[in-house]
Design brief:
heterodimer, A: alpha/beta, Rossmann fold, 8-stranded mixed β-sheet, 3-stranded mixed β-sheet, 5 helices, 13 strands, 33% strand, globular, B: alpha/beta, 10 helices, disordered C terminus
């Protein structure tokens, strides 16, 4: 499978690259700074390191959105999940806007939310097997419109936010499967199977 | 209301590319290869690895980022690195080598803006303020900040410094009791409690782990998010599985021991 990590210039993509390499046997992974090149792969990965303020999706956003609407399988991780939405409280600038909803600051007073938290299955989880706990490092969370399918949630100090969302062949995860040990890699493999099926 | 699961963090002191363990920063002993040890602790269920560079020599320093790189390559849990990090460029270098977080200690005391500059550039989640504290009745909290492994006193109060550090942009506090470090007679509960109550960022308690019960107490009786262990694992006094069992039995919510079924492809 040809996997492209879209490099928006925000952070180190290597840990995600090696996680996909481990989770998807036979994967051919490239890092693409051109949105057009990234959308020519069989799976698009939107990585998640850095902040919304460093994103510039003015040129890339419409290309990525078009590819997702045309059914390109996609997994977005952390900021990569957030950028699927329309806008963020963190900084000005439009997201890809493939998913309806906003990104807002976590309501818990303890920020950033860093560490291992439990996952709770939500209505649309289906056959997906969830790990008991996954690793988070974030201060912002997605607040999806009701049209977005939520597969799992996490609750931190009274704030329940989506851990995994899905629409079409796109999945976004707020946590870091590449930092969630063997259970995270197994989940990543299952997510790839789900979007690429 | 759920909170984070409490973390068990394994610390490896690395000297010239080897893991060493000393008592109160003296009498270092070789306990193994950092890459192998880190991977083994992940497989056994460690929630996070901390690498502290304690290398004194210039030649050893050059090898440091290579050790970080090779270790990060083998790990699928967070890796924090610290020791000798002096500039924003040092932080960038460690992150590029694959670290998830970088711990700043003496350099942040010398120039607190290092914390805000690093947090602005890389995000608070990458910036850990490492505080070494010693009991000292002349400080308001009863604890003084010390640097250079406890050899140098500062004028700072430990709780005040933690509060200032979090305000400046540290996303986590790694809090080491110099009085307890390596002594294995339990964590400094009062210090941990005072700091964890004073800040909203996660606190990792360090120094003094000798028994599973010590880990259970520091996580059960303070708001610390994580307990750091080192020597008792390297020496085989206990195992991560036994520590995690004790945490569960003691009512401390933690991640179950990860089964390692994913094979390298």
């Amino acid at each position: 499978m040809k996997i492209a990590l879209y490099d928006s210039g925000v952070g180190n993509l290597h840990s995600l690259e090696k996680a996909f390499d481990r989770a998807v046997p036979g994967a051919r992974i490239t890092i693409e700074s051109s949105a057009l090149a990234a959308t020519r792969a069989e799976l698009l990965v939107l990585p998640g390191v850095g902040g919304w303020g460093a994103l510039d999706l003015r040129a890339a956003g419409p290309i990525l959105k078009g590819a997702l609407e045309a059914g390109l399988p996609c997994v977005g991780v952390c900021l990569g999940m957030q950028m699927l939405f329309e806008r963020s409280e963190e900084a000005p600038g439009d997201g890809i806007g493939f998913l309806r909803g906003d990104v807002t600051l976590l309501r818990s007073p303890r920020r950033p939310h860093m560490g291992w938290s439990a996952l709770s299955p939500a209505a649309h989880v289906g056959e997906l097997k969830l790990p008991d706990a996954v690793y988070y490092a974030h201060s912002f969370a997605c607040r999806p419109a009701p049209t977005v399918r939520v597969l799992a949630t996490t609750t931190v100090e009274g704030d329940t936010f989506p851990a995994i969302v899905e629409q079409g062949r796109t999945i976004g995860v707020q946590f870091h499967p590449e930092k969630s040990s063997s259970a995270g890699l197994e989940l990543l493999a299952a997510l790839v199977r789900r979007v690429a099926a | 209301m759920s909170a984070n699961l409490r973390r068990l963090v394994v610390c490896l002191d690395v000297d010239s590319g080897r893991v060493k363990k000393g008592v109160r920063f003296e009498g270092l002993r070789d306990v193994g290869d950092p890459v192998e040890l880190a991977a083994r602790y992940e497989a056994e269920g460690a929630d996070e690895i901390v690498f502290l560079d304690i290398t004194a020599t210039v030649q050893g320093r050059a090898a440091w980022l290579d050790v970080v790189r090779r270790t990060a390559e083998a790990l699928f849990i967070p890796l924090t690195v610290g020791g000798g990090v002096r500039t924003v460029e040092d932080v960038a270098g460690a992150l590029r080598a694959g670290a998830d977080k970088v711990a700043l200690n003496s350099a942040a005391v010398a120039d607190p803006t290092l914390l805000s500059r690093a947090a602005q550039r890389f995000g608070a989640q990458c910036v850990v303020l490492s505080i070494d504290a010693r009991r000292d009745a002349t400080r308001p909290s009863g604890y003084r900040v010390v640097t250079h492994g406890g050899r140098t006193d500062t004028e700072l109060d430990a709780v005040e410094w933690a509060r200032a550090g979090a305000r400046l942009g540290a996303g986590e506090i790694l809090l080491t009791s110099i009085d307890r470090d390596g002594a294995r007679d339990g964590y400094e509960l009062q210090l941990t409690r005072k700091v964890a109550d004073a800040v909203l960022v996660p606190v990792v308690a360090s120094g003094g782990a000798g028994l599973a019960e010590h880990v259970v107490r520091v996580l059960g009786e303070t708001r610390a998010d994580a307990a750091l262990v080192a020597g008792i694992l390297h020496d085989g006094v206990t195992t991560i599985a036994r520590l995690k069992d004790a945490m569960s039995r003691g009512g401390v919510a933690t991640r179950g021991r990860g089964a390692c079924s994913m094979q390298a492809s």
